What we know:
Distance between the termini of chain C: 24 Å
Strand order of the largest sheet of chain C: 1-2
Shape of chain C: globular
Oligomer: heteropentamer
Helix content of chain C: over 70%
Strand content of chain C: under 5%
Amino acid sequence: MNEVIHTLMPWLVLAAGILLTLLVSVIRVESKRPAQISALLTLVVTGVLSLQAISLPGEAIFAGSIEVSSLTRILLALFSLIGILFVLGGDRYLGKERIHLSDYYHLLLILILGAGIMVAAKDLVVLFIALEVMSLPAYTLAGFRRNDSRSNEAAIKYFVLGGAVGAVFLLGSAFIFGATGSTLFPSIHEWSRQSTTGGNPLFAAGHFLVMVAFLFKVAAAPFHFWKPDVYEGAPTPVTGIMSTLIAVASFVTLVRLVHLPALDASGWETYATAVKVTIRSLAVISLLVGSLVIITQKNLKRLFAYSSISQTGYLMLGLLASLHPGQGISPVLIYLFGYVFAAVGIFVLMTQSEPRGDTGVELVDLTGLVKRSPFRTALWSILLFSMAGMPFTVGFFTKYLVFLSSVGTGETPLVVLAALCAVVSAYAYLRPIGLMVMRDADPGAAQWGGGFWSQFVVVVSVIAVVFLGLMPNAMIHYLKGIPLIH
Amino acid sequence: MTAFEPWMLLVVSVLVFCVGLLGLILRKNLLVMLMSIELMLNAVNLCFVTFSKMHHLLDGHLTVLFVMTVAAAESAVGLGLVIAMFRNLRSVDSDQIQLLRD
Amino acid sequence: METSSSLSFLLTVPLLALLISWVIPKALQRLYAIFGSAMILALTVYETSGIIFSVSTEAAKAFFVDQRLEWVPELGLSAGFRLDGYSAWFLVLSALTTLVAFCVRGVWYRKQPRLFVSMGFFLLFALNSAFLATDLITFYLSYEAVFIPMIFMVGIWGENQKASSVFRFFLMSFAGSILMLVSMFWLMSLHHGATGQWSSHLSDILGSVSSAQAGDLVWPCAGFFLAFALKVPLVPFHGWLKDVYVNAPMPGTIWMSAILSKLGVAGIIRFVIPLFPAVLREYQGILLALSALSVVYAALLAVRSDQGKTLLAYSSISHLGFVMLGLFSLSQEGVNAAMLLSVGHAVTSGLLFFLLHQVEERTGDTSLNESKGLASSFPVLFTGIFLAVLASVSLPGTLNFGGEFLVLLNAYRASALCTILAGAGVVLGAVYMLRFFQRLGLGSPGSAGPVEAALKKDLSMTDILMVALLVGIVIYGGINPGIFMKG
Amino acid sequence: MDFPLLAFSVFSTIAILGSLLVILKKNPVSSAFALVLVFFAFAGLYALLGAHLVAALQILVYAGAIMVLFVFVIMLLNQDEPTHDLEATGMIYRGVAVLAVAALSAVLIRAVLSSKSMTPTGTLTDEKIASLGGNMKAISEQLFTDRIFHFELTSFLLLGAIVATVTLAKRKGHSEEGGV
Amino acid sequence: MITSMILFPLVGFVINGLWSLGSARSGRRVPPSVSGAIATLAMAAAFVSALVARSQLPSDGAIEVECFRWFTLGTLAVDFKLRLDALSSLFTLVITGVGTLIHLYSISYMSEDEGAGKYFAYLNLFCFMMLNLVLGSTLPQVFLGWEGVGLASYLLIGFWYREEANVSAGQKAFVMNRIGDLGFLIAMFIGFKYSGSLDLAVIEKAVLPGAVATSFVLLVFLACTGKSAQIPLFTWLPDAMAGPTPVSALIHAATMVTSGVYLLARLSPVISQSASGMMVIAGVGAITALITAVIACFQRDIKKVLAYSTVSQLGFMFAACGVGAFGAGVFHVMTHAFFKALLFLGAGSVIHALHGEQDVFKMGGLKSKLPVTFWTFTAGWAAILGLPPFSGFFSKDEILHQALVSRSGSGWVFGILLIAAVLTAFYMTRLYLLVFFGSPRMEKSKFDHAHESPAPMALPLVLLGALSLAGGFAGEPVHLPHPEAALSTPAWVIMIVSVVVAVLGATIAYRRYAGGSASAEPATDVFRIDAIYSRVFGGGLRATASATGWIEERVVQGLIRMVAALTDLSGNMIRVLQVGSAQAYLLMMVIALVVMVLYFLKGMVQYGNL
C-alpha cells in the first residue's frame, strides 16, 4: 500500500488540496483569498511532485486500472501549470465579472484531478468516472456567470450534449466489455492479439462509440457543434481551461482509445484501414470546417473555438501517422504542448479587455491597439503568429512535426490540404493583427487593461512560445522519449 | 417458442437507449431531456449486467454501481443548471437558449 | 576556423545593428540607419571580397564557405549556410538595397522611426540568412521571416488600401511557401527512407534525390516552383504584386522589388535546379513559355499603367521574366546570366523607385496621364531617372544589357520561339519606360503644378551620392559584367 | 411459455413502452411517472438475470432518490402542466430524427446480435456465485479490493457534484433580486 | 590612334555633360561657345586621329586594338576590341570629318540656345557611339554603338523637350529602332549558335545552312530597316527632323542612318550566302527609294523633303547591297554624306536666316540674300541629281549599273531605281527653285532681315560643297567583292541614261515651279503610311494592352477574388449549420454517427458476422 501511495503521491496531494481548499473556504466564508492561495499551493506542490517523479518507471496499480507513467506525470504537471496560470491570469477577470468565489477554485481543482486521472486511466470504467469528475465541474464553470443567460446557455448545451455523449461512451464500453469480457486496456489489447478474425461487430461498434465520444470531446467535426457556442458563453478563463487542459486530456485519451485494440495484429488489417479512413475523413472535415468558418467569425472566443477545431484536425494528422507501424505519438504530444503555451496566453489576454455588455471580446475591440497599447499588441501578434504556425514561434515546430510525420507515412495529399487550410486560417489570425496595427481605434472598441498577474501570465506564455520556437530541442527531445502506449 | 436467453435483453437495452436518444433530440423541455439521459444510462446498465451474465463475470454489476452514482451526480448538476436557467429566463424550454449561434 | 566566422559575422551584424537602433534617439534614426547600412554594406563587400573580386569562378571557389551547425538534432535540423558565387552577390545586394531603402525620406522617419529601422535591419538579417541557407528548413524559416517585417511595414506606413493588399500578399506567398515546406518534408522523408537518418541539409538530400524516380519528383518540384514563382513573381502568379507595391511605403517597395523578388531567384538557383534537374528538363518548354509570357504580359500591363509606381511594378515583373528565362534555360551559362540580370534588376529597380519617390515628394503625385515637364525644374533628378530608364531598357553599356543579352542568348539555344516572344518585351520595354520618362519629365512645365514644384530643391547631396553609387554599379557592370558571374 | 420468458416479455414491454411514454408525455410529471415505471421494469429484468443487488439498488437509487429529485424540481419550478415543445419542432425534423435514430438502433442491434454465440470468458457462473456466498458478497469483495480506486474516485465525483450544485443553486448576495 | 579616336568624343561628352549638369543644378549656364569649342576640338582631334590611323592602315589588312575582355560566359568570350580596316576607316573619316564640320557649324547655330552644353555633349556622345559602331570587332560591340547612336538620336530629336511633338518624335525613333534592334539581337543569337562566336571576323567567314542564312540575313536587314529607315520602319525619320538642323545633317543624313549599309557591307560574305535574302534587300531598297521619293514631291517642309530624300537615297544604297554591289552602296554612303549634310546645313542656314521658317512655300528669292548658301546648295543639288562631275553622279551611276548587270540584279530593280531617280531630280529641283528663286513669299520684314550665316556656319558649307563637287572622283573607296556581271551592258550607256533621267526630272520641275509665283500646294501625306501605322500598330498595341488589362482585371484578379469569395461563401455555408439548438446539434451528430458506423462496420462483413 505504501508503494501505491508513493506512486500516486501527486494525485493524492491534489486530492488532499481539494479538501484543504474546501476547508479554508468554509473557515473564512467571506473571502475568496484563502481558497485561491490554497489552490495555488496545491497546484504548485502537485506540479513539483509530478515533475520530480517524472523519470520513475511506469507502474500499473489497482489491478491495472490505473497506470502512472512519465506521460501521466508530465501531463499532470502540465495541468497543474495550466491551473496555476489561469488562477493567476483569471483573477482580475473574475473580480471584474463579480463571480470571484471560492467555489471557482474548488471546481477547478476537482476538474484538474479528473483530467489527471483520466489520462492515467487504463480501465474504461475509471475513464468514465474520471471523465465525469472532469466534466461536471466543467459544465458548472461554463455556467459560472449565473446571471448571464449566455453563460447558462453554454452550460446547458455543454451539459446536455456531454451527458448524451457520456452515455454513448458508456454504451461503447459495455459493448467492448461484452466483446472482450473486460474493461481493462491491457486485457482488451491482449484479446485483440488473440482474436484472429480481426474483431467482431460488437467490438467494432463499441470501439467506434467510445472513439466518437472523445471525438466529441476534442470537437472533431462533425462532432464540433457544441464548441463555438460553449466557448462563447463560458467565462473567458473557463474557455481557456477548456481549450487547453480539457482539450489536452481529451486528445491524449482519444489517442489511447484509438489504440485500444492492437491494430497491427494479424487479421486486423481491414479493421485498421477502417480506423484510418475514419480518422482521415474526420481530419479533413475538421480542417475544412475549422479553417473555413474561422474566417467568418467576429467574436474572438468563437474564433478560437473554430481555431481549436482546426487544431484538432492537425492533431488528427498526427494521430493518423501514429497508426502506421514504427511511428510514435510524439508529434501529437509536442503539438499539444506547443498549442497550450500559446492558447494560455491568448485566453488570458482576452480577459484583459474591459467588459462591454455580454458579447465578450469582439474583433472590433482590437482596432488601433498598437497606438493604445503597443506592448500588448506585440504580445498579441506573437501569440497569433504562433497560432498561424509562423516560424520562430513554437506553433511552427508543432505543425512541422505533425506534417513531417504525416508525409513520412505517405499522407502527403492530406498534408497538402492541411497546409492550404493553414493558409486560409492564417488569414483569420492575421486579421486581428491587421486591425491592431493598421486601423484606428473604433469608437466602440473596448478598453484594455490587465493586472500585474494577468500580464505576467501572458508574458510567460509569450516567452515560452518564442523560446520553444527558437530552441525546441529540450521539449522535442524529452517528449520524443515518451511512449504513449505500453 | 424459444426459451429466454440473455441476448434478448441486449436488444431491449439498445431500444431503450435509442428511445432515450430520440427523446433528447425531440424534446425541448429540459426536464424531459434530463430524464432521457437517465433512460440512456439505464439502458447501458442493463447492457452491462447482461454481458456480465453472458460472460459469467461480476464486473458488469460493479460497473452499474458506479454508473448509478454518476447518474445521480449528473442529475443533481443538471437540475442545478436547469434551476439557474429558470431563474434567468423563467423557462425550462431549450428553445429559449439559442442566443449562441453562427 | 577563420572562414566560417565570416558567415556568422555577416548574419549577426544586422542583428547587432537592430539592437543598437533601440538606443539611438528618434531624430537620429535616419542618419543611423544610413550609416549603419552603409557600414554593413562595406563589411559585406569586405567579407565576400575574396569571391566577388576574384578574376574567375575557379579563383573564387577557394573562398566558398560551408558552415553547418547542429540545431535540433532530433529532427535532423541544422543551420546550414553556404557562401558561394551566388550568395555572395545576393548578400551584397541585400545590404545595398537596405542602404537605398533607408535613404528614402518619408513618414516612416516621423512615425515610429525606431520600429522602422529595426524592422529594416531584421529584414536584412532574414534576407542574409535566406540567401546563405543550404539547409532546407533554415531556408524556409528565413524565407518566412522575411514576410514579417514586410507585413508590418506595409501595415503601419502603407497607403490607404494597405490592409487588403497586405493580406493578399501574405496569403498568396504563404500558400506557396507552405506547399514548399510540404515538398521539403517529402524530400526529408525520402532521405529518411533511404538512409534511416533525418536530415534537411541540401547536400544530404541531394544524395537521396538522385536515386528517386523523376516521376515521383514532379509534385515536390511543383511545390518549390510555386513558392518561388509566387515570390518572383511569374505570370500568372503575380496577382498580389501590384496592390502591394502601390500601397507599400517606398522603402518597402524598394525592398520588395529589388531584393525580395531575388529570394525566388536564389531559391531556384540553390534548390530547384540542383534538386530536380530531370523534372525541369521535362517541363522546360512550359517553364520557358511562362517566363516569356511574363515578360510580354507584364510589359503590356506596364504600357497601359497610369501611375508611376504601377508602371514600375509591372516593369519589374517583366524584367524578372527575363531572369526566369535565363534560369530555365537550365545551363550554367543561363543561370549565370540570370544572376547578372538579377543584379542589374535589383540596382535599377531600387534606383527607379528611389527616384520616383523623390518625384512624388516634390510634386505629390506620379500619375502618367499627362506630361508634367519636371525635368527643367529638377535637371539632376531627371538625369538620374533617365540613366535608370536607360538601364531599365537594357541599353548596351549598362549592366542590364549584359544580363538580358546573355539570358536571351542562352535561352535561344533552348527555345527560339520563347526567346523571340520575350524579345518583344525588349521593344515594349522601350515603349513604356520612355513614356514613363516623358510623362514625368518632358513636355511643357506649365501643365502640372510646377509652380509649387519650382519652389523645391533638386536632389540633395546624399541623394546624389546614392544615385551616383547605383549608376556607377550599373555602368561598371556594363563594362565588366564578369564580376557578377561567379557561379 | 416458461417463466423467464414470460417475465422478460412483460418487463421488457413495460420498459420500452414506458420509455416511449417518458419522451412522449406532454406533462413532465407524467414523464417522471413513466420513468419510474421503466426503472421498476428494469429492476425486474435485473432480478431475472440474477443480479439481485443491482435490482435492489435500482429501486433505491433511481426510483427512490433520483426520481424524487426530479419530481421535486418539477414541482419547484411549477412545471406540472402540459408543454407543447414536441409539436414545436417541424415535421421534417421529427421524421429525420426518427429515421436517424432508427438506423442507429438497427446498426446497434445488428452489433449486439453478434454476441449470441459468444464464449464466456469468466468462471463466475450462477452456481459459483452461490458458492461464494451470493451475489452481494461477491460484488462487495471485488468492490473493496480491485475496485477500491473506482470507489474512491466516485467520492470526488460526488464532492464535485455537491460543490457544483451548491454553486449553481446558491443565490447571489443582496443585489440579486427575484430568484425562485 | 584608334583608341584615341574614340576617346576624344567620349572625353568631350563627359566634360560637357557633367559641366552642364552641374551648372543646371546651380542655375548657372555654360557659355555655348566654350562648350561648342570643346566639342569641336574633340571632334577635330578625333578626325586627325582617324587620318593618322588611315595612313597607318596596311593596304589590304586591318589594325586591331584590344582594349579589355568585356565578358565571358561558358564558351562565349567577347573582347572589347577595335578593328580598323578599309571599310571602317572610310566610315571613321566620314564621321569625324563631317562631324567636325557640323560641330563647327553648330557653334553659331546653337549660340542662342540655353541648352547648348547639353547639345554638344549629346553630339559628342553620338560620335563616340558611332565610332564604336564602325570600329567594333564583335557584334555586341557593334550593337553597343548601334543602340548608342539610337540613344543619341532620341536625345537630340527630343532636344527641345518642352514641345510634346519633339518628344514623341524621339520616342517614335527609339521604339522603331528597337524593333530593328530585336532583329539584330536574334541575328546575333543565330550567329552564335551556328558559328560559336560573336566575333565579326569569325561570323564573316561562317557558312550558315540555307534557311538559317536567309533568316540571319532577314533579321540583320530588319535591324537595318530600323536604323536606316527603310520600309517598313522608315516613318520615324521624317519626324526626326524635329531636332536641330545640324543634328539632322549629321545623324539623320550623313552618318547614323547609313550604319545599316555599313552593317550589310561588313557582313557581306554572309549576306551573299542567301540569294532570297539579297532579293528582299534589293526589292525593299528599290521600293523604298521610289515610294519615299514620291512622298518627297508632296512635302512643304524643307527638312521633310530632305528627310524623305534621305530615305530614298538610302533605298538606293540598299538596292545596291541587295544586288551584291556593296562597294557601290558604300560609295554612295560617302558621297551622300557629303551632299546631304551639305543640303541639310544649307537648309539650316536658310531656316536660321528666316528665324525658323521651314515651309518652302513661304520662301523664295533667297539667292541674293544668302549667296554662300545658294552656291553651296547648288553643288549639293547637282550632286543629288547625279549631274556629272558632281560626286553623286559617280555613285548613283554605279548603283544603277550594278542593278542592271549584276547576277542578283534585275530589270525591275533597275527600272524602279530609274523612276526614283527621275522623281529625285523633280523634288530636289522643286525645292531648289522654291527656296532660292522666284519672288519672296514670306513677310517682308523676314525677307529683309534675312542675312548670310556667320563664318563658322559658312565654312562647313563651303567645305562640304567642295567635297560634293569633287568627292566622286575618289572612286569606290573600299574594294568589296564585286558581284558577277550577268549582262554586259556598257557603263557609258547607263551613264547617259542616268544623266538623261536627272535632266528629265529637273525639267519637269522647272516647267512647273520656275515661274516664281508658285501657288502653295497643300502638304499631302500621299500614302498615308504614317496614319495607317499609327492606326494599325499604335492601335494594335493599345488594343492588346487593353485586352491584357482586361485579362489581368477579370481573369487573374478575378480568380483571386473568386477564391476569396468561395472560401468566404463555404465558410458561411458551414456556419449555417450552427443553428444554436442543442437538439439539432445532437441530431446532426447522430446522422454523422450513423453514416460513420455503417462505414465502419462494413469492413466486418467479410468475417461473416454481419
